[in-house]
Amino acid sequence: MNSRVRFEQNDSYERLNRLARWLILLIIAATFPVSHPLAPEVFAALGAASVFNLSRYVPVFMKAPAWASPIGGLAVDVLLVASVISAVGSISTPYTGLFIGIMVVAMYRTGLRGLGAVIAVQLTVLATSVAFGKGATATPLSDIQTVMVSFGNICLIGFLIAGFTSRERSREKDLSEFSEAVLSEQERMQALINTLPDAIFVIDAKNRLRLANGAALELMGEPTSWVGVELTKLLPLQPRSKLGSGPVNLLEAGTAQHRRDLRLIREKVSMDLDLSVTPVQLGQSGNNFIVVGRDITKERSIDRQREEFIAVTSHELRTPLAIVEVALSTSLLSKADMPGRTAELVDQAYRNTLFLGALVKDLTTLSEAQNDNLPIALKPVDAGKLLRQLGTDFQKTAEAKGLPLQVAVAPETPAILSTEHYIHEVLQNYINNALKYTKTGHITLSAKPSQNGGVRFGVSDTGPGISASDQQHLFTKFYRAEDYQTRETGGTGLGLYLCLELAERLNARVWCESKVGVGSTFYLEVPPFSKLRQDHGKVVEAQVSNLVDQL
Amino acid sequence: MNKTTGNKLAKILLVEDDITLASLYQMRMETEGFDVKHCNNGEEALEMAREYRPNLILLDIMMPRLNGFDVLDILHNTPSMKTVKIIILSALGQQSDKDKAMALGAAEYMVKSQVVIAEVMARIRFHLGLPQLPPSE
């Protein structure tokens, strides 16, 4: 921005400079006595100076910094006037006055230093003329010529001063408009950052606070002075698991990090925070860190309730369910001894117990999958091994239904870093569905490299296929493709929804391709690295560092 | 069923603190022809394993006094108990629990309510090298 302003200013000054040079050339050409013995040399010099001035209209030349420099122009002007004065052989000639115009140009274009140089050259020229000019055959200018030179000179100086001052004025105006624009832009940014609900701190490598927005000040309890104060003093954090162990230094790790295990404890305040720390390079101030903080106390308490729910479902429900299941199953061993419709009733009770068990299992896995606090352990996963294992596991069930189960693993399928039991869970759901809905034909488990360097798993069946309208809803909660009348397969309605949630947890993608009457293929595409889903904190962080970059 | 022969298929020690569930399991196992003894906690389990010399132990994890992991660890490191198959049947369903039990030497890990009793029985037969029963339905 700044360099653009300077360029435009230079351009406009150069235009003025060129016009001034034409004026000087005109004054000399119009007044220099043609009868003078050195007249041819002087006119040759005028010609050369004209060519030089013309060249300064050519953009190609003006792009070369050396050529475009005002110093070059000044040198040409000074030399020209000096040579004319030398030719005239007297310093009392009115041509000396032309130096004033050149000095005005020097003053505006190069500042005091350029002016000094011009004066120095001028003095040398004048001194030389005084010392050696005595012998020159002076042909004095006629009165009319003297008047013309003087008049032209006054016009030149007036023109230059008027031109430069008006340009200076407009430049000042531009600058003040520009700085106002910058200021209001900065104010807008500050207002934006200040009204962000997330607390934003900028700290230096020594953990001293440099910037904080409104939410950040609120978190710190509106301290009276905070610039340059250590963040550990302003924001006393303690790990939730080890309360009272002293303030935590967020920069201890020295790298970017994202923590959800810290609690802010200050006087009457106790708050669970989500904090992300990102190193940034800000101007010349070296390595800084942006800390984005968010109050997650409420969220945490919801998480705790959910954890409690998981505990209840997994333990308190499981045992009674198991009791009912075992009791019914065992009593069904002597089905033949049961009177009348009892066998049928017990059978129904048994089947619904199994359904209830499946529901509890799916709900538990779902709660687990949706719990972001549960760490994800990433380990190398061998897709081929996993599929072959699944093939073996389901071989018997498939054979019992008369469906051959094939496993096809492309040889170039890469190893991925992911969580095997989530992938296993998704594929198991797919296979169970395929087995459930396929009457004849076969089922194929496949794995091949995906475009993003991960693995695309597929489970294909030759079942009834799924209509396009049903396909849209497949992965939603409690959705079933068949209507109630034909519902004979008895799933919980959570299976594919669970697949979607698990896939999201792995940054993976699930979808289905199907043709009615031909069959369906369910896909799971796992990236080479399964990262945690991008969370809120990361997004804000990216926005802030964008803002900072713009500033 | 071998109920009438008196020749039991194998000896099973059932370690489960829920008495209702334990008695049902015992009933089922006995119906299928096994010799079954039951105990309520980890300490008793260690004692009974020494006296009763079961072929297989069906072990719960969350129990009073000594938990299933400890029982598993001790039994697996007792030379005379090395050949005893230990199947975990617990309400704990997390992968980390499964991994821990398998690392401690369990033959199999099953989660209550995720498996049906018929399956448990099938796995018991598998680990004891016995033929499977024909499907009941």
Please provide a written account of the structure:
- The complex is a heterodimer of chains A (about 550) and B (about 140).
- Chain A has helices at about 1-30, 40-55, 60, 65-70, 70-90, 100-130, 145-195, 215-220, 230-235, 295-335, 340-370, 385-400, 420-435, 470-475, 495-505, 535-550, and strands at about 200-205, 210, 235-240, 255-265, 270-280, 285-295, 380, 405-410, 415-420, 445-450, 455-460, 510-515, 520-525.
- Chain A is of the alpha+beta class.
- The longest helix of chain A has about 55 residues, at about 145-195.
- Chain B is of the alpha/beta class and about 140 residues long.
- Chain B is built from five helices and five strands, in the order E-H-E-H-E-H-E-H-E-H.
- Chain B has helices at about 20-30, 40-50, 70-75, 95-105, 115-125; strands spanning about 10-15, 35-40, 55-60, 85-90, 110.
- Chain B is globular.
- The interface of A and B includes residues 319, 327 and 357 of A.
Q: Could you give the order of strands across the largest sheet of chain B?
A: 2-1-3-4-5
CATH superfamily of chain B: Response regulator
Structural class of chain A: alpha+beta
**What is the CATH topology classification name of chain B?**
Rossmann fold
- Overall radius of gyration of chain B: 14 Å
Shape call of chain A:
elongated
- What gap, in angstroms, lies between the N and C termini of chain B? 16 Å
What CATH architecture of chain B would you give?
3-Layer(aba) Sandwich
Concise synopsis of the structure shown:
The complex is a heterodimer of chains A (551) and B (137). Chain A has helices at residues 2-31, 39-55, 59-62, 65-68, 70-88, 98-132, 143-195, 214-219, 231-234, 297-333, 342-370, 383-400, 420-437, 468-473, 495-505, 536-550; strands spanning 199-204, 209-212, 237-239, 257-266, 269-281, 287-295, 379-381, 405-409, 416-418, 443-449, 455-461, 509-515, 519-526. With 551 residues, chain A is an alpha+beta fold.
